[in-house]
Specification:
Layout (H helix, E strand, L loop, with lengths): L3 H6 L4 E4 L3 H5 L7 E2 L9 H5 L4 E5 L3 H12 L5 E5 H6 L3
Length: 91
């Protein structure tokens, strides 16, 4: 699998931001999808349809929990940690 940086720079990543909608509106990775962490269990089928999933949040805690949850449900994903670091790979 490609690295987070490669996926994001080439536009192949589906960046999923698991912060709250309020946090997301203050800044986010361009083209990312906002699925708050508490909604993830109810949206597993939607997430399963995504490719090259890179998760992000504010500090990395929620994205790590989300990555663990998704992997336990057989969904491949990468934990990108803080959205600001994922965003750096866009440039």
């Amino acid at each position: 699998m490609e690295t987070i940086e490669q996926l994001v720079r080439t536009g192949k990543a589906t960046v999923v931001d698991v912060r709250t909608p309020q946090e997301y509106t203050t800044g986010h990775v361009k083209g990312s999808i906002n699925i708050p962490l508490h909604e993830v269990p109810n949206r597993v089928d939607e997430i399963k349809e995504m490719n090259n999933i890179v998760l992000c949040c504010a500090s990395g805690g929620r994205s790590a929990r989300c990555a663990d949850f998704l992997r336990r449900h057989g969904i491949e994903c990468l934990d990108g940690g803080p959205w600001t670091l994922v965003n750096l790979h866009c440039n």
